Amino acid sequence: MDARTGPSSAPTAISLAGDTEQPAGAGRTAGVIAAIRARIATRSLGPGAKLPSIRKGAELFAVSPSTMVEAYERLAAEGVIEARAGSGFYVLTAQTPLVLSDLAPRLDRAIDPFWVTRQALEASTDHLKPGCGWMPADWMPEEDLRRGLRSLARSDASRLVDYGTPLGHAPLRQHLVRRMAENGIDTTPSQVLLVESGTQAIDLVCRFLLEPGDTVLVDDPCYFNFLALLRAHRAKIVGIPFTPSGPDLDAFAEAVATHRPRLYVTNCAFHNPTGAVLAPATAHRLMKIAESADLTVVEDDIFADFEQHPAPRLAALDGLQRVIHVGSFSKTLSAAARIGYIAARPDWIEGLTDIKIASSFSGPALSAELVLSVLKDGSYRRHLQGLRSRLAAAMAETRKRLARLGITPWIEPRGGLFLWCDLPEGRDATEVARLALAEGVVLAPGNVFSVTQSAPGKMRFNAAQCIDPRIFSVLEKALASG
What we know:
By secondary structure, the protein is an alpha/beta fold. Helices cover 42% and strands 13% of the residues. It has an 8-stranded mixed beta sheet with strand order 3-10-9-8-7-4-5-6, with helices on both faces. It has a 4-stranded antiparallel beta sheet with strand order 11-12-14-13. A two-stranded antiparallel ribbon has the order 1-2. 44% of the residues are buried.
């Protein structure tokens, strides 16, 4: 009987012909997998149908038995088929068809701190993402990463399969100590903890220092994931108005006196979303207020490598006594090789390490080795030089295109990724973002960054993601409608 007669019958033959069109250069294993998948998708092989034996399948597909074994094993690992001891391979229950509309961004999702990230990560590859917070893939040091991966692939087995040490890869921690010293932060490798990302770094700090109901100060506006993380930890969030030179210090002092906060979370280098740089006088006065109130400061240094001339680091002024310094390399090296770090005083590192072990056991050992292999290569500095030049050109062009639409920057940043802009008077950024999303463009409306919801007419633009002129056509249309 042919497999078409019922789900329990066995197929008499399987052919690649007419089943699927293989991409140029597709391997033999991939061809077998694609052909079997196509037969299942068209119901030629129904649930419970028995597949040919390894020997018979190899003959039908004109491949080696080892290729047939690999194809079956991959399909079994994906839950498409199953192996029954002593009987053979069988098709499992039919998989739910993929509905492309299910992959589309949700236009009705609330505009909250998750909105931009969810839209940007869930959007298809043909969506444009001037509202996202990362670099285009072709701006990253792809060849350096490939070279590092090849080197890791040749390393001994222990480096590929073993857990990392509690603090993380020692040579990378030593390298980070030297990097921080360039910005005046004096520390040691034992005061540096490697984690999976900058976001995990702040999450661990919150787990270590916060109790539900504790007050945390943030800039207003601030990076929207600060708000999401703090709400997850059930903190009370108080926003401090942000100025071109840093937080409004009068408002900061008043909030410290009124709310007795446990933490203040901020960016150094280029502030997200405004692109502003902390002024030295503001930094000194801020730390005096923090010291008098025994306030701990969490300083996110994720944009350090975009700087030509380093801004003040609060950790340098404080000597890592009450400042916790965190960072990662997702913006300039790779968002896929997840690695972050925390620099803090020794007793806090001890407690943070325990929480890291409790929550994730070990760290990203492979990512740490890969990141170090790129950082210590002289090509990384050349990459940064080219990246800064490319960003400066993109920033200038983006400002020019936005100006034609009546969109004006809050300040003109000295570098970095972002332009924090005012839309034409009367335009609501949330509605403009919804309209643009329907046209395949992901924008970042101002209120996702504001704890007080005081930025309805503002929007953050990532200059590196604003190269495509279609963005501005869609934006013009959305502004006219919104």
